[in-house]
Structure formats: C-alpha cells, structure tokens
Amino acid sequence: MSMVRKLMIAAIAVITMLPVTDATATSSRIKDIASLQSGRENQLIGYGLVVGLQGTGDSLRSSPFTDQSLRAMLQNLGISTQGGQSSAKNIAAVMVTANLPSFASPGSRIDVNVSSLGDATSLRGGTLIMTSLTGADGQIYAVAQGSVIVSGFNAQGAAATLTEGVTTAGRVPSGAIIERELPSKFKDSVNLVLQLRNPDFSTSVRIADVVNAYARRTFGDPIAEARDSQEVVVQKPRSADLTRLMGDIENLVVQTDAPARVVINERTGTIVIGADVRVARVAVSYGTLTVQVTETPQVIQPEPFSRGETAVQPQTDIMAEKTGGPIAVIDGPDLKTLVAGLNNIGVKPDGIISILQAIKSAGALQAELVLQ
C-alpha cells in the first residue's frame, strides 16, 4: 500500500501598473435597495410540545423539562398526573420561533419554525400543540399549532443508520394566528425613514435627489433629506396620504452605487468579483513546484526450509515536477476583461486567489479584498 504526499509551492511575480477608469452605477427601485424603518419585522419566540411522534421523541428521564411540561399540560386539561413517571417516547419539547411582519393585523397567519430542545431524534410526523409566541416586551402576539413539516429523514437498522438532512427541526406553514397588533400605527407617523440595505453615501444622496424631484412636481417643495449613508428622511406633506406617498416613492428608480469588492472563500475556493472591480495593467507569472513522495515497501521472504524471518524492506520514490507558464499581462478596465485575463493564465481557483492577493499587495487591485 502506497502513500502519496504533495507539496505545492506557488511563485507569483507582479510588476508594472497603469491607471484605471471610473466605475459605473446600476438602476434599481427604492423598494429594492431600502426598507421602511417603521415597517420592520419583529421576532417572536415560544416554548411548546410536539406530540404524535413514532418513538423518536424525548427520553423523559433525560429531559425532565419535557416531563414537567407534559404534566402541566394534562393538568390544564383536567387530567390527573399523580403516579409513576411516564415513559412515553412520542413527545418532544421544542422552541418555536417566528417573524411578525410589519403592519400585521389580528387574524392573519404566519409561518413558524420548530426546533427540538431535548434528545429527540426526529420530529417527523409530529403535531405542534397550542403554543403562545411572545415578543421582546413579554406580550403574546400569536398562537401556533399544526403539523410539523420536516424535510430530513433517518432510517436505522441493527448495524447501520442512514440520515438525510436535519430531522430535529421543521416548519409549520401558516401555523400561527396573530392575536395582537403592534402598538405603533403607520398612519400616525409624521415622516418616513428609509434605511438602505447596503449603506452608501452616494446612493443615499441620489435617493434624496430623486424623491425631491418627484416632490417638486407633485407638491411643489422638496421633502427628502439624506441623514447619513444609511438613512433618508422623508417629511410628509400636509395634503399627502402617507400610504399613497410611500407607494409612489418606493417605485422611483435610483442610480445605485457600492464599493468595489472581491470576496474570497479560501476553504471552498469561491471567488466573487463585483462589477465595479478594476485592475491596473499588471504582468503576472504563476508557477508551481510539485514534490511527490511514494512509499512502496517490499516484503522479503526467507528461503524454503531456512530459519530466516520475513522482513519488510522500505522503498521510497521521490519525484519533483516544476511547472510554470509564461508571463501574462492582465488589464481589467471592466469585469469581462478581468475575468478573461484571469482565465487565460490557465490556473485553478486556488491559484487565482493567490494571484488576486498578490495584485492587491502590489496596489493594482482597485477594490476591497474580503477574505472569508
């Protein structure tokens, strides 16, 4: 049996730099790049029980909180729980989470996520019983109940076990009914605060300019002000309806801008290059040195009828291979040219990652390099 070890040594040379061109912007609707501050979601959480499992629930001895919850539930239903400890395996304690949408009204339904809290092996086939969902203020805003949908599954035999996906977490579609609305009212607001999902001063100023241009045509006065790189405040005109005003503003088209970034994940070899990334003209040479060590031990047998012993004679083969392409010139005035230049070098993603890092060190990469 042989063992192969490889040592990769990369050598990169980067020289010669030239100036680059300016970046270009793209067009997007305001609703796609910003959200309303008063229209944010609120997180809800609750503790409940899932019943109806096929022997895959919590061990009541290992999860005492499940046994306590079961007894409390039965007592609330008027059933006496005095006696020995139950050994049922068809019940599991779970945490229930959900997001309360903005401007949600009582009676509407939302989806909930269910996650096992004890040592249950699967929630497949279970039913979440009535669970109260509270907000950060401790008030109950929704009540959840319904069948748990689990995408994963597991199968177990005497000598093997097969698991596909996650079986201890699931979802109840439209499983919660909203019982209480949020205290704030959209109609009571005196202004609209737009929050950019990707903060940028240029985009914030452009949003304010586009909204003011619309306001001058409609109301005669500007109403928007860019507070910083993330917030744009829109004052409500006296004669305007706030809902209709937001409906008109969110469909306005804005020229967006964002910093140029190159995102690299060295673990998976993923490279994401933004459209505004520019690279000055550089000359790149990339080469690798591969050292291969192969161990092939030989077994030596003694002569027949001799008193010798079987021995193992080591045998090692070492091979070194050095590869390297010619010096290539990369000039990236736009994304398409940059990608074509990197592909022409003929290296794999790990090599491109090393090249991009070296170009950044040489000062030729006009972008932020994000390593994950």
From TrEMBL:
Single annotated GO MF: structural molecule activity
Stretches of the chain forming a coiled coil according to its record: none
Signal among keywords: yes
GO cellular component: bacterial-type flagellum basal body, distal rod, P ring; outer membrane-bounded periplasmic space
Keyword Cytoplasm among record annotations: no
Keywords in alphabetical order: Bacterial flagellum, Cell projection, Cilium, Flagellum, Periplasm, Signal
Signal sequence, renumbered to the chain: 1-25
Main localisation: other
Function recorded in the entry: Assembles around the rod to form the L-ring and probably protects the motor/basal body from shearing forces during rotation.
PANTHER family: FLAGELLAR P-RING PERIPLASMIC PROTEIN FLGI, FLAGELLAR P-RING PROTEIN
Subunit-structure text: The basal body constitutes a major portion of the flagellar organelle and consists of four rings (L,P,S, and M) mounted on a central rod.
The protein's name in its UniProt record: Flagellar P-ring protein
Record organism: Rhizobium soli
Gene: flgI
